[in-house]
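Entry for zinc ion complex. Fields follow.
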Amino acid sequence: MSTCPTTWPPLRCPPERAATIPAEGTSLNLETPARALAVAAHPDDVEFGCGATLAKWARAGCQIHHLICTDGAKGSWDPDQDTAQLVLTRQEEQRAASRALGGTGEVTFLGWPDGELEAGLRQRWQVAYWIRKIRPDVVLGHDPWRRYRLHPDHRNAGFLVTDAIVAARDPHFFPEQELATHRPSALLLWEAEDPDHVEDVADFAEAKLTGLLSHRSQFRSTMNINESNAEKARDEIKSFRSRVLARLSEHGQLGGVSLGEAFKLMSNL
Ligand SMILES: [Zn+2]
């Protein structure tokens, strides 16, 4: 008899008690798309949200693309940080993370100021442009309807992706782009308020972790890894890996698999 919690999110349920059937109303695994576009607020959000799913699809021949809305310039706890250098470093880290996932597509930076991203018309124009240009079968992004979400960039990046999908599919939005309209077949929202879809990522946890650990400038502020003490940092990296694996295990339970990434699936876009 399982003692796993039945409510979402099921916290700290150990892997050996993982469910073996998907929760009612939960779908498992989309068909591998030919092209996928992940739209995020900051460098590293994609790897946290859907890195293992992208790695799985890339291995199966999917072209994966990253679109990062902000410059990531506030991603440091050091008040003396050279933020212009940080922006460049984070771009390099994001490209390395994409390669770690097996990415061969575009890694694009819109460059809006970190912490000040708005879900406005100019930003929507840009996201719709990239959806029309890349023509992804699946788009992935932040769930803008997640309750009590604190970071405005995550909320606004979520609204940008949903609003841009509407704009990209309808011909009277932004005709000056001179690009054919495009309607993706699915939108997957990570950090979902109401997850109802799981991608089985059993063989892709390592790729996700390598992608995440490519964001070395974020070790201190996001991953709780302090490199000033090498020995301690090794333990902290181990702890970070354990936390990521525990989360994949939690998400996997919803889909009846050992390791998963959970999303809200929107189709009929
Ligand atoms: Zn973020």
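NOTE: The two ends are 40 Å apart (CA to CA).
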